[in-house]
């Protein structure tokens, strides 16, 4: 009967000699060699970098409106009270759209896959950002901001 093969690990996480089966000690053979134990799946740097850039672009797209939203909406409102109401509505609709559509995107990505969903969301994010910048009325800005990244279909 073969014992569970383990490798000793030092404090610095380097691998030491593999442990052997008690029966194998008598014959001098090990169950696993150093080369087999040292083979580790390499860290997927490219894939993690793409995901990091994707997360960064979503964060930038979500928060880029903060510096200029009041100036942009002041063209559409008549009073400071109206301006506060419109900007609050704009930010609330974005948060609500993310809340409502998160379940949909999660279950849809379970069926279709993560990559197509990430690519589709990035494309829709780009389109929504351009539409938000080109919008002339509050309704247009609200629609594009609500459809931003976690869109409501």
UniProtKB/TrEMBL annotation:
Keywords on record: Membrane, Transmembrane, Transmembrane helix, Transport
Transmembrane segments: 46-66, 86-105, 117-144
Compartments it resides in: Membrane
Topological type in the membrane: Multi-pass membrane protein
Annotated Gene3D superfamilies: MFS general substrate transporter like domains (1.20.1250.20)
A Pfam short name: MFS_1
GO molecular function: transmembrane transporter activity
Residue ranges of every copy of the Major facilitator superfamily (MFS) profile domain listed in the record: 47-153
InterPro entries assigned: MFS, MFS_dom, MFS_trans_sf
Any single GO CC term annotated in Swiss-Prot or TrEMBL for this entry: membrane
The protein's name: Major facilitator superfamily (MFS) profile domain-containing protein
Species, as recorded: Hydnum rufescens UP504
């Amino acid at each position: 009967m073969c014992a569970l093969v383990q490798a000793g690990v030092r404090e610095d996480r380097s691998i030491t000699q593999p442990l052997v089966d008690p029966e194998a000690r008598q014959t001098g053979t090990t169950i696993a060699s150093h080369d087999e134990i040292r083979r580790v799946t390499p860290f997927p740097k490219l894939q993690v970098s793409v995901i990091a850039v994707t997360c960064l672009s979503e964060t930038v797209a979500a928060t880029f409106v903060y510096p200029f939203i009041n100036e942009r909406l002041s063209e559409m409102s008549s009073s400071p009270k109206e301006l506060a109401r419109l900007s609050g509505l704009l930010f609330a609709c974005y948060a609500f759209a993310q809340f409502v559509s998160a379940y949909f995107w999660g279950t849809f990505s379970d069926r279709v896959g993560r990559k197509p969903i990430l690519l589709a969301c990035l494309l829709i994010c780009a389109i929504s950002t351009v539409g938000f910048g080109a919008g002339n009325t509050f309704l247009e800005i609200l629609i594009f901001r609500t459809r931003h990244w976690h869109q409501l279909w």
